[in-house]
Specification:
The chain has 292 residues and is mostly helical. The protein has a single domain (64-291), classed as MetI-like (MetI-like fold). It has helices at 3-36, 53-59, 62-94, 101-109, 116-138, 154-166, 168-179, 183-191, 196-224, 228-233, 245-254, 259-291. Helix 5 (116-138) crosses helix 6. The longest helix is centred in the first third of the chain and has 34 residues, at 3-36. The chain is globular. The mean pLDDT is 88.
């Protein structure tokens, strides 16, 4: 097979993926930007271009600003907790002291195969029926009622569900990274009298830096775009206490019939995620070069 035929074959193999990328990502992004510059309501086929008026309104929207604050707060807690818990679980499962490791891996990974809406609906019933009974039996006042109706605790109720399901895949990634570390490095460190903490700091963590970066990016993106859990658990309530940017965009388009305004907010969210992702990649790449 000639060089030209090989190159043509490679292009043919990449075409399905490229086509899906254009149709499912670039196309919707283009349409969101296009409609964000109009007064389109999602129903009336007639609309007019209004320039940046939707973006100007978003910057002066108190509700939008409040949802940004909630989403950032939610994202920080989610990212930190998922990263730490999944790393600790991976370290525990990688230890030779833990028996039945394959069983535990299956148990911890099980939530990943469930849909987010399904998980949210299941935990909604648990919070409504089971948790108050347990709280009353243990004499814990904060858990004696449905915490999804508690203004102070509702965010932690949603976060718990998200973290419970969100640790599965990062744990597998960390575990795979730990398994790839040469065993002789740990053996040499043991002979030198290194403690478990020193082994993690100077051997394990440097090998896991790339995975940590991936996990951080995935969780920041998941936090900033969180929608499923909040929709299934609280619908943004009580009041607007748990209304995220993703849920607000959904409400603007399908409840308030302001499709163009919701599109403008989604474009702003896309820009924030893109800036954070690029900054993270640059930082991690620089750290990788420094470590080498």
């Amino acid at each position: 097979m000639g060089e030209l035929n090989k190159r043509t074959l490679y292009y043919l193999f990449t075409m399905p993926g490229l086509l899906l990328y254009v149709v499912l990502f670039l196309g919707p992004v283009y349409m969101a930007v296009y409609y964000s510059l109009t007064d389109y309501d999602g129903l009336n086929p007639k609309f007019a271009f209004i320039g940046l008026r939707n973006y100007q309104e978003a910057f002066h929207d108190v509700r939008f600003a409040g949802d940004i604050g909630f989403t950032v707060h939610y994202t920080v807690i989610l990212t930190v907790m998922v990263t730490l818990i999944s790393l600790l679980l991976a370290l525990a499962l990688n230890s030779s002291l833990v028996r039945f490791r394959n069983v535990y891996r299956s148990i911890y990974f099980f939530p990943a195969v469930l849909g987010s809406i399904v998980v949210g609906l299941i935990w909604n019933q648990i919070y409504y029926g089971a948790v108050p009974v347990i709280g009353k039996a243990l004499g814990i006042e904060a858990l004696s009622t449905n915490i999804l109706g508690n203004n102070s605790l509702v965010i932690y109720g949603v976060l718990f569900v998200n973290i419970w399901q969100g640790i599965s895949i990062p744990m597998v990634l960390f575990f795979a990274g730990l398994q790839s570390i040469p065993k002789h490095l740990y053996e040499a460190a043991t002979l030198e009298g290194a403690t478990a903490l020193q082994k993690f700091r100077f051997i394990s963590f440097p090998f896991l830096t790339g995975i940590v970066g991936i996990v951080l990016i995935l969780n920041i993106k998941a936090g900033l775009t969180t929608f499923d859990y909040i929709l299934a658990l609280t619908g943004g309530g009580p009041g607007f206490k748990t209304e995220s940017i993703g849920l607000l965009i959904y409400k603007q388009g399908f409840a308030n019939i302001r499709f163009a305004y919701g599109a403008a907010q989604s474009v702003l969210l896309l820009l924030v995620i893109a800036i954070i992702s690029v900054a993270q990649f640059k930082y991690l790449n620089r750290k990788g070069v420094d470590q080498q």
